[in-house]
Each structure stands twice: as structure tokens, then as C-alpha cells.
TrEMBL record:
It comes from Allomesorhizobium camelthorni. The record marks F10 as: Participates in the substrate recognition with KAPA and in a stacking interaction with the adenine ring of SAM. Catalyzes the transfer of the alpha-amino group from S-adenosyl-L-methionine (SAM) to 7-keto-8-aminopelargonic acid (KAPA) to form 7,8-diaminopelargonic acid (DAPA). It is the only aminotransferase known to utilize SAM as an amino donor. InterPro entries: Aminotrans_3, BioA, PyrdxlP-dep_Trfase, PyrdxlP-dep_Trfase_major, PyrdxlP-dep_Trfase_small. One of its GO terms (cellular component) is cytoplasm. Belongs to the class-III pyridoxal-phosphate-dependent aminotransferase family. BioA subfamily. Its EC number is 2.6.1.62. This is Adenosylmethionine-8-amino-7-oxononanoate aminotransferase. One of its GO terms (biological process) is biotin biosynthetic process. HAMAP family: BioA (MF_00834).
């Protein structure tokens, strides 16, 4: 075979010259071209919820492709998009009334930011500041990098990023600092929106905070007329134990972003849900008030049908019970590490579990990351640490034995790579 011409994401090709080729997927597994099975402990970047190639989703894709492909979504509509919008509004926190489609988590957040600024401009009281949380990750486009934490992922593009106000991460015991800082930056009423990852900050290190903090942040947004954007791209579709993480705080945001698990991980799609007030601010005979955003593949019918099949799986299968069982197993798995000297912290929220390996150097670029990845891959396990942070974010169909095997391997990794206290 000639050399590969494919440039991979978040991949340093100089250090990863050879790449495994995956020929098949199914359930919690990937299978290489030469027949090796790999347990997908991270749901292939957090997208696969029920397991790879759930038959109902595969069937929906097949069936829809027989009658529909992409149609321009400005001025035209189709049944899968209409039905999916109603399904989403039925599942999402109450108070959200409109669904805007796009095709990735990043675009769903870009759309949210534009909606927020458009709202204030269109009601004649412009606000332009965005407040974001320390350590957040919202995507890799210029806007989403701007509202994300500054660091190694975006250092090269810093000159293009816009300024945001940052509130501290509400670490245990320091929650009030976060709330006080948010109140302080809200006072001059120039803040259009607070954007947060509810309960779990993903790529920033699987950092977790309690639901009451989100509820308190919500109260502050309400007090100052600031919009709340819940970026549920990672946390949505059961990851934190409830369908959306906001539910645990009884919070209904003004804007909610969803992608990843929206199609059960089969095909790209995203949606930004918004309140009627935000829609009405854009609803006018004045064409300048139009929401000027689109992407060519907006509301792809095949992707919408896959997402509808996903919603039906939630309705027809015991997904909630599966999530509860997996969450309990994750919590039990972590208990093994309470007194393990090679780990400095372990935490779980719903189906997401994370452990901090004791190492001399931390951070995304810590050399330990690729070493750990190779260690797990040799054992047929796909784990992709964030520096020294090991996390498990598996499909809900993972078995008890498979999860136990992962925790055994993590224990072994601790002994092999962890520093002694
Ligand atoms: N927001 C959050 C919270 C995410 O975790 C991610 C991706 O990991 C994104 C946005 C960006 O999504 P995508 O990679 O689909 O653009």
C-alpha cells in the first residue's frame, strides 16, 4: 500500500507513524482489519451510547437512505427533522421550544453563541460578553476555542480568539468563589451568556462539580437577565445518570447544545435547542433580524432518522436501568482505588469515571499519556488518557466482566507508571 495521505485529528504523526485500521464495529468493540478485537472504553470519543451499530439505528439509516438524501434546509423541511424536533423537545428540560440543527458539537455551540448575541441585538439591548468556566472545552472552532480554556490546544490560534470572562472551576470547598465571581461579572449587565458544561468538564480533565452549583449559577443568570447556555454535547444522552445533566439541578437553560450521543454515535448531527423568547427575538418582518447561520448539511435526513431511532431506543428499551447499573459498577470500580497510593483522586458522575494517576508531570502533553494509551492497546483496550487523567466513558452495553477487566488493567497501569507518594 502507498503511504497514507490521511491527516488525523489530535494526532502527532511524527510520534504515531503506524495506525491500526478498524474494519468492523459492534457492541462495545472495534475489530481491526487483521481480526483483533478492541474494547472501546471511551465510546469512540464519547459518541457511542448504546453500543456500536445498534440494529434499530442501522435500520433507520438504511431505510431513510432509500428515499431521502440531503435537501437544502432553508425554506424546505422533511419528516425526519420535524419528528425529531418534537421528540427532542419532549425529552429535553421544559422551557425549550425550538430546535436548530447543525452537524457537530462545535457548530451547536457556535450556533448557541450567535443566538445569544443575536437575541440581545434584536431586542435592542445589545450585550456581547460571554462568561465561561475555567478548564472548559467547547470545541475546536475559533468561537468555541475562545470560550474554552486557553492552553496547549489553542495556543497557536490565540491571536484570533475573542476575550471572555472566566469564572473559577467550582472545586470542592471553593464553590462560593465561583458563584461570587459570576455575580461580580454579571453586575454591569453586559454579559450575554454564561456557557457551561453541566456537572462534568470533559476534555478539561473530567472534572466534576455538584448539581447545586449549577442551580445557583442559574439563579444568578436569572437575576441579571443573562442567558444560560448548557453545553450538553458530552454530558447528554444519559452520560451523567440522567438524560441531560441539567435535570439533576432542576435547571432549564435558555439554550442547550446536543450532539455526540444524539444519533447513538452512528452519524454526525447536532442540535441547539432554544427558548421561545430567543426565537421570537429573531422572528420579524425585518429581514436583518433573521438568524444568519447555516451549514450545507443542516438537518441531514439520514442523520435525523438515526437520531429518531435513538430517541425510540430510549422509549422502548430499559436504557435508564442500564445506565443506573453501569453507574453503580463505575462507583464500585473506583472504590478499589480509594487507598491506592498510585492515584491521587478518583471520581464518578453517572456512567463517567475518572482517576488521576500520580505522576511527576501532569497536563495534556505529559509523556505518560501516549505510554498509557499504548499499554492499554496492547491489552486490547481503547483508553485515551487526558495526560495523567485516566477515564472510562464506555457504551452502556459494556458487561460487568469487561468493566472489571478495565479496572484490573488500570490497577496494573498504576503500579507500572505511577509515582510513589
Ligand atoms: N462541547 C463539549 C462539551 C465537548 O466535549 C465537545 C467534544 O468533545 C464539543 C463541544 C465539540 O464537539 P465536536 O467534536 O463534535 O465538534
Amino acid at each position: 500500500m502507498n503511504r497514507s495521505a490521511v491527516w488525523h485529528p489530535f494526532t502527532q504523526h511524527a510520534l504515531e507513524p503506524a495506525m491500526q485500521s478498524i474494519a468492523r464495529t459492534g457492541g462495545a468493540h472495534l475489530e481491526t482489519a487483521d481480526g483483533r478485537r478492541i474494547l472501546d472504553a471511551i465510546s469512540s470519543w464519547w459518541v457511542v451510547t448504546h453500543g456500536h451499530r445498534h440494529p434499530a439505528i442501522v435500520e433507520a439509516i438504511r431505510k431513510t437512505a432509500d428515499s431521502l438524501d440531503q435537501i437544502i434546509f432553508a425554506g424546505l423541511t422533511h419528516e425526519p427533522a420535524e419528528r425529531l424536533a418534537n421528540a427532542l423537545l419532549g425529552l429535553a428540560p421544559s422551557g425549550l421550544d425550538w430546535v436548530f440543527y447543525s452537524d457537530s458539537g462545535s457548530t451547536s455551540v457556535e450556533v448557541a453563541l450567535k443566538m445569544a448575541l443575536g437575541y440581545f441585538r434584536n431586542i435592542g439591548a445589545p450585550r456581547s460578553r460571554i462568561v465561561a468556566m475555567e478548564h472548559s472545552y467547547h470545541g475546536d472552532t475559533i468561537g468555541t476555542m475562545s470560550v474554552g480554556a486557553r492552553g496547549v490546544f489553542n495556543a497557536a490560534y490565540e491571536p484570533l480568539l475573542f476575550e471572555v470572562d472566566t469564572i473559577p472551576f467550582p472545586a470542592a470547598g471553593r464553590e462560593q468563589e465561583t458563584l461570587d465571581r459570576f455575580e461580580e461579572v454579571s453586575r454591569d449587565r453586559s454579559t450575554a451568556a454564561l456557557i457551561v458544561e453541566p456537572l462534568v468538564l470533559g476534555a478539561g480533565g473530567m472534572l466534576m462539580y455538584p448539581a447545586w452549583v449549577l442551580a445557583e449559577l442559574r439563579k444568578i443568570t436569572e437575576a441579571y437577565g443573562t442567558l444560560l447556555i448548557a453545553d450538553e454535547v458530552m454530558t447528554g444522552w444519559g452520560r451523567t445518570g440522567t438524560l441531560f445533566a441539567c435535570e439533576q439541578a432542576s435547571v432549564s437553560p435558555d439554550i442547550l447544545c446536543t450532539s455526540k450521543g444524539l444519533t447513538g454515535g452512528a452519524i454526525p448531527l447536532a442540535a441547539t435547542l432554544a427558548t421561545d423568547a430567543i426565537f421570537q427575538a429573531h422572528y420579524s418582518v425585518d429581514r436583518k433580524k433573521t438568524f444568519f447561520h447555516s451549514s450545507s448539511y443542516t438537518a441531514n435526513p439520514i442523520a435525523c432518522a438515526a437520531a429518531l431511532a435513538n430517541a425510540e431506543i430510549w422509549r422502548d428499551e430499559p436504557v435508564t436501568e442500564r445506565i443506573a447499573a453501569l453507574s453503580a459498577r463505575q462507583a464500585a470500580g473506583l472504590r478499589r482505588f480509594r487507598d491506592n497510593p498510585f492515584f491521587t483522586d478518583s471520581r464518578a458522575t453517572g456512567t463517567i469515571a475518572a482517576l488521576d494517576l500520580r505522576t511527576d508531570s501532569a497536563g495534556y502533553l505529559a509523556e505518560i499519556g501516549p505510554k498509557l494509551r499504548a499499554f492499554f492497546l496492547e491489552r486490547g483496550l481503547l483508553v485515551r488518557p487526558l495526560g495523567n487523567v485516566l477515564y472510562l466513558l464506555p457504551p452502556y452495553c459494556i458487561t460487568r466482566n469487561e468493566l472489571d477487566g478495565l479496572y484490573d488493567a488500570i490497577e496494573e497501569a498504576g503500579e507500572r507508571f505511577g509515582s510513589r507518594p
